[in-house]
Automatic annotation (TrEMBL):
This protein's name: VOC domain-containing protein
Top-level lineage group: Bacteria
InterPro entries in the record: Glyas_Bleomycin-R_OHBP_Dase, Glyas_Fos-R_dOase_dom, VOC_core
Pfam family name, one: Glyoxalase
Domain VOC: 2-116
Cross-referenced CDD domains: VOC (cd06587)
Lineage of the organism: Bacteria, Pseudomonadati, Bacteroidota, Flavobacteriia, Flavobacteriales
Gene3D superfamilies: 2,3-Dihydroxybiphenyl 1,2-Dioxygenase, domain 1 (3.10.180.10)
Species this chain originates from: Flavobacterium bizetiae
C-alpha cells in the first residue's frame, strides 16, 4: 500500500514552504497563496493554509533501511532529533523490524525517519533528501481506531498491518510501504507528551492498482 498524496493543514504557508524547501531540501512542485505541494520521494505532501489551525499531525518518511546513521548525521544543524532515552535518539521497533528517529517541523508536527529492514531498499549513495523514499505513515485520530480500520478493510480491500498488535486504542492499516496509523484522541504521540487530536486529513492511496481517496476529520 502506497501513500501517494497526503493533504494536511498549516497556519503559515510561507514558513512551512521555507522549512521543507530550505531545511529538509525537498522539491516544491506547486505553490500558491494558500497551499504548497512538496515532493517526498514517491509521495506528495500538500499543506493547505488555515490561519486558525493550532494543532499538529504525525507522519513518517521511509528511508533506506541501511541509512539511519547517515540520516542522523544529515539532520545535525538542520533539526533537533528528539531524545528517547539516555541521550539516544533511535527507537528500535523490534516487532516491526525497524529503527526510527523523530523531529519537529516548523509547525510542531511530529516527523519521523524510519528504516524498515524487511524492505529491500538499501542504497549505496550518501544520505540526502533525495534518499527519502516516500511518506510511510500518517496519523489518523478517531474515537474508534479498530472500527475505522475494519471499515477501511471491508470497503477498500485493505489489511491490518500484520506486525502490529492492533487494538481499540491503536491500529495500523497497510504494510511496510505505507500505513494509516489510527489512535484515539488524547493518546500521546510517541515519543512526546503531545496528545493526539482529530484534524482534517486527506489521503490518496495506491493499493494493488486501485486509487483510493480518503477524507478524515
Amino acid at each position: 500500500m502506497k501513500l501517494a498524496h497526503i493533504q494536511i493543514q498549516t497556519n503559515n504557508i510561507e514558513q512551512t514552504t521555507a522549512f521543507y524547501q530550505d531545511i529538509l531540501k525537498l522539491p516544491i512542485i506547486e505553490k500558491d497563496s494558500d497551499s504548497v505541494s512538496i515532493q517526498a520521494g514517491n509521495s506528495v505532501l500538500k499543506f493547505v493554509e488555515n490561519p486558525q489551525f493550532k494543532s499538529i499531525y504525525h507522519f513518517a518518511f521511509n528511508i533506506p533501511e541501511n541509512k539511519l546513521d547517515e540520516a542522523i548525521e544529515w539532520c545535525k544543524n538542520k533539526v533537533g532529533l528528539i531524545l528517547i532515552k539516555d541521550q539516544n535518539v533511535i527507537t528500535n521497533f523490534e516487532n516491526w523490524n525497524a529503527h526510527a528517529v523523530y523531529f519537529y517541523d516548523n509547525n510542531g508536527n511530529l516527523l519521523e525517519f524510519i528504516a524498515r529492514h524487511d524492505l529491500n531498499n538499501a542504497q549505496s549513495k550518501k544520505f540526502s533528501s533525495k534518499a527519502i523514499l516516500n511518506i510511510s505513515e500518517i496519523g489518523i485520530v478517531n474515537e474508534n481506531p479498530l472500527e475505522v480500520g475494519k471499515e477501511l478493510i471491508a470497503k477498500h480491500s485493505l489489511e491490518f498491518f500484520s506486525k502490529n498488535d492492533n487494538s481499540e486504542l491503536f491500529a495500523a492499516v497497510g504494510d511496510d510501504e505505507g500505513l494509516l496509523i489510527m489512535v484515539q484522541p488524547n493518546r500521546n504521540w510517541y515519543p512526546t507528551q503531545t496528545p493526539s487530536e482529530s484534524n482534517k486529513t486527506e489521503v490518496r492511496i495506491e493499493n494493488n492498482g486501485a486509487l483510493i481517496e480518503l477524507k478524515f476529520q
